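Input sequence (167 aa), recorded before submission:
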Amino acid sequence: MNRIKIEIKWAIIFTIAALLWMLLEKLCGLHGKYIDYQMYITNVFYIPAIWIMVLALRDKKKNYYNGIMTYMQGFVSGLILTLFITLLSPLMQWVISYVITPEYFPNVIKRSVELGYYDTIEQAQTYFNYKSYAIQGSIGYFVFGLVTVAIAMIFIRTKKNNSKIDA
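Predicted structure, token format:
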């Protein structure tokens, strides 16, 4: 358990950050009055999400590997972190959908039909619902995590020639 304590901690931090982001979106009107902008603004969350992943990897390097971590050690740590985030994502989506912003799906369904993205409310409902978002979120977080970790570890890993400087 001690081996994955850091990954669990950062998966919880990531989940809380994502929930706070959704709360902020709601408070700014992006799930209601300004819903047309939500699909663009929500992507800004990638910035803190990447930052959290990098901080998690740096934490693992410093506090578990004593400042010296290979690419593969970091990638495995990042994979474990990604798996925990992926496992938490359906719960996260449930909290978003039913606690933080239960009006989001009805609002986005109505607006997507008004804009002509879907011909009928029923068509829009097949895409905009908890189950669909839970599946998309799980897949999305898994892919996002793997890509982020693969790239971040190029910079975070301990380089052979300057391991004492990089630590």
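Checked by second reader. Helices lie at 5-27, 35-41, 46-63, 71-100, 104-114, 121-127, 130-156, 163-166.
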